[in-house]
Amino acid sequence: MMKTFISTLALAVMLVLWNSSAGAVTIVGTTRAYSTINITLTITTNGTSTTKNDVNTYHTGNVKATNKTLLAMFAGWSTNDPAGWQAAGARLEFDWVADQLIVADKTGTNVLFYAGDGVTNGTVTAYFNIEWFNEDGPSTGSYNGKPPVTYTYKQATTAYFELYYQNTSNQSADTDLFSYGPNISNYSENRNPAKPKWTENESFNVNYCGTTYNNENTSQVVGTITTSGQGVGTNPYLD
Question: Which end of the chain, N or C, is more open, meaning fewer C-beta atoms within 10 Å of its C-beta?
C-alpha cells in the first residue's frame, strides 16, 4: 500500500503539528527579488499485487506533493516548528537572488529556509532544486530603447527539478524525484528611472519515469511547477 508523500519521508507528524501551537521562527536571510511558486506533483509507483481465483492483478498507487505538504516536509528537514512557520505566514517562493526555492514569511522578503541548499544533518541529506534554463530554446521579444526603456521576451526552455532525500540509517525512505520538461519563461521590464519594475512567470510541465520514491526506482512523477512575480528595479537572474 502507498504511504502518503509526507509520511514516506518519515514526517507524517509534521502535518499534525502544522495546526498545533506556534513557536518562534528564525529568519535565515532576506531577498529583494522573488516570485510566488505553485508546485503540484503526483508520484505513481507499483503497488501490491493481489490474487483471486489464481488470477494475479497488479496495481499502482499514487501520492500528491503540494505546497502544503512540502512546507511541512521542509520544516521537518530543518527541525523548525511548523506551527511557528504557519503563524508567520510561511509560503514557498523562488528567490531570484539566491537562484533557488525558499520558504519565506508573509512579508515575502524574510527567508525561513533555503530548500535548494537543503540540509545535511548526520545521516540525512535532502534538498529541492529547480533549474528554469537547463537548456535554452527559441524566443520572441522586443526591446524599445526610447525612454522609458522597455524589454520583453518569451522563451521556450527545458527546465529541471530534483527532490532528493537520503537517510543512511533508513534506506527504505530514499527518494530521488526528478524531471526534465518543457518550460515557458515570460519576462518584461520597464527601466523608467522613476519607477523601474519587472514581471515574470514560468510554466514547467513535469513528466518523468525511472525516478526513485520510497526506494522504488520505477516511479513516475507528473505535474506542474509555476511561478508568478513582480518587483522593483531589475530581476538579477532574468534581466
Answer: N
Query: Which run of H or of E encompasses 83?
Result: helix 82-87
Contact 226, 38 (CB under 8 A): yes
Instruction: Give per-residue pLDDT as tens, 185-236.
Output: 999 999 998 899 999 999 999 999 999 998 888 999 999 999 999 999 989 8
Strands (E), 145-215: 150-167, 175-190, 197-213
- The domain of 75 spans 5-13+26-48+56-132+159-180+205-230
pTM of the full structure: 0.90
* Contact (Cβ atoms closer than 8 angstroms) between residue 75 and residue 13: no
Number of compact structural domains in the chain = 1
Neighbours of 141 (CB within 10 A): 12
Mean pLDDT per 10-residue section of the chain, whose length is 239 residues: 46 42 81 97 88 85 94 92 93 98 97 97 94 98 92 97 94 92 97 92 97 90 98 90
Nearest to 77 by CA among 45, 27, 112, 39: 112
